[in-house]
Specification:
Layout: E1 2-6, H1 15-28, E2 34-39, H2 40-52, E3 58-63, H3 72-92, E4 97-100, H4 105-117, E5 122-126, H5 139-142, H6 150-154, E6 161-165, H7 168-177, E7 185-187, E8 208-213, H8 222-235, E9 241-246, E10 261-262, H9 272-281, E11 284-287, H10 300-307, E12 312-315, H11 318-327, E13 331-334, H12 337-349, H13 353-366, H14 372-384
Parallel strand pairs: 1-2, 1-4, 2-3, 4-5, 5-6, 6-7, 8-9, 8-11, 9-10, 11-12, 12-13
Helix pairs in contact: 1-2, 1-14, 3-4, 8-12
């Protein structure tokens, strides 16, 4: 039996990724009982996700977790109770495996402590965006020194514990800085539930729609997206290009966007139905993220673009290079901001419908290598290695 647990997320946060991770494990080990444990409303969301996709053989258990915004010292005290409860559940259900869907800095201390007291249990911990913090010396202060994630990650590792990152490029980047981590890392592409294939033909005779997927903020490159839209708008007075923020604008420093950018929501969540409608309507997904933004995490927005079958226009970085290498011609990688804007303007001057169709088909074909069935083979290797 395996315990799959989410020790920190509440409600809908990461529910779809965690549900997909459970689905991949279910295919990899069809006869292995699964107990999914997490905060009660999160468990409900994961349960609903799996039920809608007819994933069976999973039981669910709700527990109390630390508040999402509590300080690390307080979280350290609260997560002691969380991890003690998780290992009690594992022991009580004769589970010899625990898959942690995420981990905090205080939680990783307790995870290692508990593993030393339960020698028969093996664990895998998924590392998300918190990895970015281990290279920021300023986070020494932010994380109260002892809770800087670099410390619990690099020290006190053991054969019972492995870390899972969502992308081979993350492992490569991390081990280039810390070679000793190589033996402790395993990789899996982001588990994702793709939408069924749908036809899409851009209305290029009227306007081409360029969409930035996800929350709008400067850290996500939304300021560059706005600048490019303004430049294109100044050059082309006719309405041959449309720019859409497919997500809520959540940065008060970006309160004056160009008039040719559609903003569906400001400082409030965007309903899923609205997000899907807007994502379906765009022709290209554009990513103005800084080149170092996705060194140690993957982009859920990129997988949304794959799900909707949208060719990519992005600044060159490891995450985009990884999937362009995997899938082939799926759009355009650009060296800098100026090249991205020139590429968008070039598409407006000459739209190649044949190239567009090839890019879409490469995405749809490439998704097979990201399917639950394909990832389940990797999951088997991860636990058997």
């Amino acid at each position: 039996m395996i315990l799959i647990c989410e020790p920190q997320c509440i409600g809908f946060e990461h529910a779809e990724v965690n549900g997909a991770l459970v689905g991949v494990y279910r295919i990899a080990f069809p006869d292995d009982p699964i107990l999914f444990v997490g905060e009660r409303t999160h468990v409900e969301q994961v349960s609903l996700f799996l039920r809608d996709r007819e994933v069976s053989g999973v039981d669910f258990k709700g527990i109390e977790v630390a508040p999402r915004n509590c300080s690390n010292p307080k979280r350290f005290l609260l997560e002691r109770l969380v991890y003690r409860r998780l290992f009690e559940l594992a022991e009580g259900n004769n589970a010899d495996r625990i898959l942690f869907c995420s981990v905090t800095s205080p939680g990783l201390y307790w995870l290692k402590f508990m593993l030393r007291r339960h020698a028969a249990i093996h664990a895998i911990a998924v590392l998300h965006g918190i990895l970015e913090s281990i290279f920021h010396w300023a986070d020494l202060i932010r994380y109260q020194l002892v809770f800087w994630f670099r410390f619990p990650l690099l020290f006190g590792n053991m054969p019972q514990l492995r870390y899972l990152v969502f992308g081979e490029f993350i492992k490569k980047n991390l081990t280039s800085k810390f070679p000793s981590m190589r033996e402790h890392l395993r990789t899996l592409d982001l588990p994702y539930d793709f939408r069924p294939e749908r036809d899409h033909t851009p209305a290029f005779e009227s306007a081409i729609r360029f969409g930035a997927l996800g929350v709008g903020s400067r850290t996500k490159g939304t300021d560059a997206f706005f600048r490019c839209a303004a430049q294109i708008g100044a050059i082309r007075k006719e309405a041959s290009a449309e720019f859409v923020l497919v997500g809520p604008l959540m940065d008060d420093k970006l309160s004056d966007p160009p008039t040719n950018v559609t903003i569906p929501a400001r400082f409030k969540p965007l309903p899923r139905e609205t997000y899907n409608f807007l994502a379906e309507s765009i022709d290209y997904a554009v990513f103005f993220h800084r080149k170092d933004h996705y060194r140690f995490s993957t982009s859920a927005a990129l997988f949304d673009a794959f799900s909707f079958g949208k060719p990519i226009i992005a600044l060159r970085s490891p995450v985009f290079e990884h999937y362009f290498d995997m899938m082939g011609d799926i759009g355009y990688l650009c060296a800098d901001f100026e090249e991205m804007c020139l590429k968008i303007e070039g598409l407006l001057n000459h739209f190649d419908s044949t190239a567009y169709a090839v890019q879409r088909q490469n995405i749809l074909t490439g998704r097979e290598r990201l399917s639950w069935k394909y990832l389940s083979n990797q999951m088997t290797e991860i636990w058997d290695s």
